[in-house]
Amino acid sequence: MDNILSFGVALLFLSAAVIYVIIKNRGWNKEREDQERENLERHIEFVTYKIEMDELEKQLRRKEISKDKYERLRKNLEERHQKNITQIHSLEEKYR
What we know:
By secondary structure, this protein is mostly helical. It has two helices and no strands.
């Protein structure tokens, strides 16, 4: 009878440990997925910014736009990029 009782206690302890590890892993996985999503959002924003800047420079080289218009559009693009990056950072802080 003592063996059955000690076996039951050991089984209960192991069950509690397994449940604890499962719950802890869910939290770690969620943190890792959130970090990957944030990195992807940041990467997408930088790639979009780079593509748009390249397009502006290409238009300037082809003389499709004037130098003044280029400067104005570049400035607007940089401001929008900064705004998007700030928004991504604020969302990161909000969900932490």
